[in-house]
Amino acid sequence: MSGTDATDFLQSLITANVETLPDDTVRASALLTPQGRVLVDFLISRTDDGFMIECDAEQVDELYTRLRRYRLRRPVDLTHETGLSVWIIWGSNDSPDNLLPAEAMRDTRHPDLGWRLLAPVGASANAPGSDAEPTSLDMWHAVRIGAAVPQGPVDLTPERALMLEAGLDRLGAVDFEKGCYVGQEVTARTHYRGLVKRRLAPFILADATATT
Q1: pLDDT of amino acid 177
Q2: How far is residue 166's CA from residue 37's CA, in Å, rounded to a whole number?
Q3: 113 within some domain
Q4: N or C: which end of the chain has fewer CB within 10 A?
């Protein structure tokens, strides 16, 4: 996303504060329904001329359509980027910039989530000389779930999940001081009145073979 009005557009639409978004980091955020339900959750980071928004592949079309609908005639350019892939590095003492031809960004949702890199599709890791080892997507999800970090739509049912029940506020995905955005009234009221009755949380089965 780019354009002279990109910052103001996002600031009035999504849950996170993009004005305070540091360089070289990704921040969790979401687009809500007017009733305060999570429509699409995503990660946002700065680029040279605007912002990069990452969401689950299943929800790209939905998010793109919604952003275009809210944009109206604002000077905001939206581009569906298909030439990049996401690399994730965690649990490593090595600099992520030594591993891929791309700029690393700290994942601010949780310290265990490490760094994210956007690299051209087909890029290969520069493993020699580093302590990074290839792993599986399942292993990454185990780390994510263990850190109580939900990811929609597998964990956040669209138009049903609530920001605070899902714990997205603990991940820095919502700013209660920045002003209005879609779904802000319900979210703020729930927060300030202490009306959160349940929270999403991970757990470990004592017996992984149990069927009941």
Answers
A1: 94
A2: 11
A3: yes
A4: C
Distance CA 52, CA 23 (A): 12
> Mean of the pLDDT values across residues 150-170?
94
**pLDDT tens-digit profile of 38-92?**
999 999 999 999 999 999 999 999 999 999 999 999 999 999 998 988 888 888 6
- Neighbouring-strand partners of residue 43: 28, 54
The yes-or-no verdict on residue 11 having pLDDT over 50 is yes
What domain range is 177 assigned to? 6-192
Q: Which amino acid is at 17?
A: N
Provide the pLDDT for residue 128. Answer: 44
Give the closest residue to 38 by CA, choosing from 196, 170, 146, 167: 167
Q: Could you tell me which of 49, 48, 76, 46 has the C-alpha nearest to residue 64?
A: 76
Q: The CATH number of the domain where 114 resides is what? A: 3.30.1360.120
Distance from the Cα of residue 82 to its chain's centroid: 18
